[in-house]
Write a structure and sequence with these properties.
By secondary structure, the chain is an alpha/beta fold. It is built from eleven helices and six strands. Bound molecules: uracil (URA). Uracil (URA) binds next to helix 6.
Length: 286
């Protein structure tokens, strides 16, 4: 273990007990069959032109499409046909279209209180995707995810297993806008924002997804099980292996659980390396 890694682990509150004695090269554990996978729509083979998509999307919001209702923030549940239509449009977007759609989104009331949308950051073809909950005050001010205290801890956690934010991961949140006062996301906000995240997953095509905290786990695995019960297993988001761990903000409040999150990271790395060796790909990081 490098001195730098040791310092990072020390900052995370983890002692030498967590040192790895040998490189882990275990095959991936079997994917759990007992959990429902998230409803990620496959990218359709025939792509509409970018101009068509932008027009469809704008028309949907402007009421030019009968199947799409104007956003009604007073209504808890978006009409099913409208939600389906909007999701289908989003699931056909490329990166620039998706960025623009998120930046202009007014699908829920958070658009009225945000300073910036927080799209996501990192390598758009990264092998790992990290999914958090929602932007906080600093993320809202800067427009990037995980730039506050929780973000510093996340960077240290990633570095402890050899992953760099800009190179090895793409980081995104369930919500792209800050809930005022850092309150929990509302179910309707999650439902309206989720298509953006599902499209990001489909575009990044990560080898492994790390779900941080209960909002990410619940939204992507369609469950309301506890984090404790979801840890230590390989789930699936569409066909992608997904591992659940604690949210860095929770770890800041509950430092004793940092050791468990380290176990989760080591498990995630071992799973990823197992997948790499099964696919014959070179192991380039971690
Ligand atoms: N917490 C999150 O879940 N996401 C962020 O971007 C920042 C804090």
């Amino acid at each position: 273990m490098s001195g730098r890694r040791e310092i990072l682990l020390h900052e995370m509150g983890l002692g030498p007990v967590w040192k790895l004695r040998q490189a882990l090269r275990v095959p991936a554990p079997p994917l759990s069959a007992d959990l429902p996978s998230a409803a990620i729509v496959e990218t359709p083979a025939a792509q509409p032109s970018p101009a068509d998509l932008v027009l469809d999307y704008a028309a949907a919001f402007e009421g030019g499409d009968d199947t799409f209702a104007e956003p009604d923030f007073g209504t808890a549940v978006e009409p099913v046909a409208a939600a389906d239509s909007r999701r289908e449009i989003i699931m056909r977007m490329d990166w620039p279209q998706l960025r623009e759609a998120v930046a202009d989104c007014t699908a829920c009331a958070l658009s009225g209180t945000r300073r910036n949308t927080v799209f996501g950051v990192g390598n758009p073809s990264a092998p790992w995707m990290i999914i958090g909950e929602a932007p906080g005050a600093e993320e809202d001010a800067r427009g990037d995810p995980f730039v506050g205290q929780a973000g510093q801890l996340l960077d240290a956690m990633l570095l402890s297993v050899g992953l760099q934010r800009s190179r090895d991961v793409f980081i995104a949140n369930v919500l792209k806008c800050r809930p005022p006062g850092n309150r929990n996301p509302e179910p309707d906000e999650v439902a309206r924002c989720l298509p953006h995240l599902l499209r990001q997953v489909a575009l990044v095509k990560p080898r492994l997804i790390l779900l941080m905290g209960r909002f990410a786990a619940h939204a992507m695995l369609e469950t309301d099980a506890s984090i404790a019960s979801l840890r230590g297993r390989v789930h699936q988001v569409a066909a992608t292996p997904a591992i659940v761990t604690y949210h860095p903000a929770y770890l800041l409040r509950t430092p004793l659980d940092k050791a468990k999150s380290w176990e989760d990271l080591v498990f995630a790395r071992a799973t990823w390396r197992g997948l790499q060796s099964l696919s014959g790909d070179p192991i380039s990081t971690a």
